[in-house]
C-alpha cells in the first residue's frame, strides 16, 4: 500500500463500535478509557484516529464478551452512519457497482486499516481486502462482513450474498457460524481476504437512489479527501496538542500516530516548516496560557493542569520564561 506506516480509522467507526458494545451490555465508555481514548477525541465524526485505538477497543470488547467472533458480529450489524459521510453517499448510489466505485475512491476517509480493491478475472469478480499480516482477525472479519451486510441493507434483498468467502487467518470459532451469516462456503488460511461475487451483483439496484444528493456528497467527500491530504501538519499538530494537553504531555510518537504520519515524516514536515516538536508544544502552551488567564473562573493551578504541567511551579517557571513575568502578574496586567 502506498501509505505512511501509521493507519487510521474515522471517529464514526469507533463510535459505532462503542454503540455496538453498549448493546452487548458492556460499559463502552469504561472500555474506551481502558484503551486511553479521550472523550473529546470522539466528538468530531469526521476526525481520524490512529487505528491501534480501534484495534485495542475491539480486543477489550472480545475479552469482555468472551466472543472471538465479536468483529464478525459487529460487521453484520453495519449501519450507513458507521462510515460517516461516505456511508450516506453510498446509500444514494444507483446500483451496487456504483457504490463499490465510490467506496474504493473514498475508503481512506473511513479507514486505512486495510485497502479494498475490485479484482476482475475472465468470468469472476472478487472484492479483496488487503491489510498487514499482523492485522487482528476480528478487524478483517468486520470489514468483509460489513460489505455484505451493507449490500443486503442497501438493496433491500436479504438474499444478496457472495459466492464464496476467503480469509487468510484460521477460523476463530465454528465454521458454521461464518457460513450462517455469509450464506456461502467460507474457506480459511487462503492467500487473500476476499469476497467472491457474481458479476451480475454489480447491476443490482439500490433502494434509495438520489442523483443530486449523490453528486453533492461526492463533491464534499472529494474536498474532504483533498483537505486531509493537503492540511499542514504543523496546524494539525497544534490543534491536536491543544486537545491532548489536559490529559498529559504527549510524545512525538503519539502525535505522529494521531496525525496518521510516521515519527520521521512528522519530524521532516516540521523541519520544513522551520520548527520542531518541542517548539510547537511550547507555542501551543503559551497561546493557551494567554487564553486561559483571561478566564477569571480558572485558578493558576487549574491552568497548569490544563496545559499538562504536573506542578504549578513548573507552569510558573515556564510562563516567566515565555513572558518575563509570572502568570499572576500577567493576569493583573490584563485586568488593568
TrEMBL record:
Instruction: Spell out the Pfam families in the cross-references.
Output: Arabinose_bd, HTH_18
Species this chain originates from: Salinisphaera hydrothermalis (strain C41B8)
Write down any Gene Ontology CC term.
Answer: cytosol
List the taxonomic lineage. Answer: Bacteria, Pseudomonadati, Pseudomonadota, Gammaproteobacteria, Salinisphaerales
Q: Which Gene3D superfamilies match?
A: Homeodomain-like
Coiled-coil regions listed: none
The identity of this protein, by name, is AraC family transcriptional regulator
Q: Does the keyword Transcription regulation apply?
A: yes
By its UniProt entry, which PROSITE patterns does this protein fall under? HTH_ARAC_FAMILY_2 (PS01124)
Keywords per UniProt: DNA-binding, Transcription, Transcription regulation
Q: Does the keyword Metal-binding apply?
A: no
Amino acid at each position: 500500500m502506498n501509505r505512511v506506516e501509521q493507519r487510521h480509522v474515522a471517529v464514526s467507526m469507533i463510535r459505532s463500535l462503542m454503540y455496538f458494545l453498549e448493546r452487548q451490555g458492556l460499559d463502552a465508555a469504561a472500555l474506551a478509557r481502558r484503551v486511553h481514548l479521550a472523550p473529546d477525541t470522539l466528538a468530531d465524526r469526521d476526525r481520524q484516529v490512529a487505528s491501534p485505538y480501534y484495534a485495542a477497543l475491539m480486543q477489550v470488547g472480545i475479552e469482555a464478551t468472551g466472543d472471538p467472533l465479536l468483529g464478525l458480529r459487529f460487521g453484520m450489524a453495519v449501519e450507513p452512519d458507521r462510515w460517516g459521510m461516505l456511508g450516506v453517499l453510498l446509500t444514494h448510489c444507483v446500483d451496487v457497482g456504483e457504490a463499490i466505485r465510490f467506496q474504493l475512491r473514498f475508503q481512506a476517509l473511513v479507514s486505512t486499516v486495510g485497502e479494498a480493491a475490485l479484482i476482475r478475472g475472465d468470468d469472476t469478480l472478487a472484492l479483496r481486502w488487503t491489510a498487514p499480516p499482523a492485522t487482528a482477525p476480528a478487524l478483517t472479519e468486520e470489514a468483509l462482513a460489513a460489505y455484505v451486510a451493507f449490500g443486503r441493507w442497501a438493496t433491500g434483498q436479504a438474499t444478496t450474498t457472495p459466492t464464496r468467502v476467503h480469509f487468510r487467518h484460521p477460523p476463530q470459532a465454528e465454521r458454521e457460524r461464518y457460513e450462517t451469516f455469509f450464506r456461502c462456503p467460507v474457506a480459511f488460511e487462503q492467500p487473500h481476504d476476499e469476497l467472491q461475487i457474481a458479476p451480475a451483483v454489480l447491476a443490482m439496484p439500490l433502494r434509495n437512489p438520489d442523483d443530486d444528493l449523490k453528486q453533492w456528497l461526492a463533491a464534499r467527500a472529494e474536498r474532504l479527501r483533498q483537505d486531509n491530504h493537503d492540511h499542514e501538519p504543523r496546524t494539525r499538530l497544534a490543534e491536536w496538542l491543544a486537545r491532548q494537553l489536559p490529559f498529559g504531555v504527549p510524545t512525538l510518537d503519539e502525535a505522529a500516530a494521531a496525525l496518521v504520519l510516521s515519527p520521521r515524516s512528522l519530524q521532516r514536515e516540521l523541519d520544513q516548516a522551520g520548527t520542531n516538536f518541542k517548539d510547537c508544544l511550547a507555542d501551543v502552551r503559551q497561546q493557551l496560557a494567554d487564553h486561559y488567564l483571561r478566564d477569571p473562573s480558572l485558578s493558576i493551578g487549574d491552568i497548569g493542569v490544563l496545559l499538562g504541567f504536573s506542578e504549578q511551579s513548573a507552569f510558573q517557571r515556564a510562563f516567566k520564561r515565555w513572558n518575563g513575568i509570572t502568570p499572576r502578574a500577567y493576569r493583573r496586567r490584563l485586568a488593568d
